[in-house]
Amino acid sequence: MKKLCLTLALLLGTISYVNAEETEFNPGLYLGIDLGYATVKDQTQETADLMVKTLGGRATVTQDAGLGLARILAGFKIIENLDLEIGYFKSSEQHMNAEGTAWNGGNYTIKATSVSSGFDYSLLLRPSLSTGINCLFIRAGGHSSQEEGKVITKVYNIDVASETVTVKGSGFLYGLGYDEYFGEHFALRGEFTRYEKIAGVSDNYANLFHIALIGKF
Q1: Distance of CA 35 to CAs 65, 155, 183, Å?
Q2: Does any domain span residue 124?
Q3: What pLDDT score was predicted for residue 18?
Q4: What does the pLDDT look like over 37-62, one tens digit per residue?
Q5: Is this prediction's pTM over 0.85?
């Protein structure tokens, strides 16, 4: 226990020292690479209900619970309390599979894949340097995004339809994060961001947990 207390004391002392050193604000550009994991809305039940309503019979649907996401970003520190940031993001491929029996007894399977991508823009609001927690920020902004998908339908294992669909729209986002600086020009960022209305669809959202490497200029 004494060793643990000593370790925590040293860590807090180091953080206090770093914050104490950061007493001047220097406006400027920064760039970064962002990687994360997003949990998405579970649409299995509503999709199954729609298929039964349309085709009758029964239906079973499975879906990926989450997906990876990569993002490149560019920002500008305007004042000590405010950054302006833009980014481009793209997700990994998401899969949804369905199988069922229609009202006439015909067996069918549906395989759908989709990828989301787009641009985001946001403000990062920070406490003043004098508080010692200027590395903490709240994100608020929006995005313009699209979801591109392909759907293949088979009846009795024979391809009967293949369709590519693209949906576009805009939405908003918000989040909370922290920048941990090492050296004069680099920082490691940890953040949670919520994207609402992806591709403009009202109930399409993602909870993103991500880490970024940032370089200041």
Answers
A1: 18, 39, 21
A2: yes
A3: 42
A4: 999 988 898 889 988 988 888 999 99
A5: no
> Residues 114, 148: contact at Cβ < 8 Å?
yes
CA angle 5, 7, 9 (to 5 degrees): 70
Which tokens is 112 given?
A: 């759908």
Q: Residue 9 corresponds to which amino acid?
A: A
Domain assignment present for 3: no
- Does position 188 have pLDDT exceeding 50, yes or no? yes
- What is the average pLDDT across 137-164? 90
Residue span of the structural domain in which 76 resides: 27-216
Structural domain contains residue 16: no
- CATH number reported for the structural domain that contains residue 71 in this entry: 2.40.160.20
Cβ neighbors of 120 (< 8 A, separation 6 or more) are: 71, 86, 87, 88, 89, 141, 142, 143, 144, 145, 173, 195
d(CA 140, CA 84) in angstroms, rounded, equals 10
Residue 6 included in any domain:
no
pLDDT of residue 23: 53
Q: How many domains does the chain have?
A: 1
* pLDDT one-digit tens code per residue, 99-110: 999 888 888 999
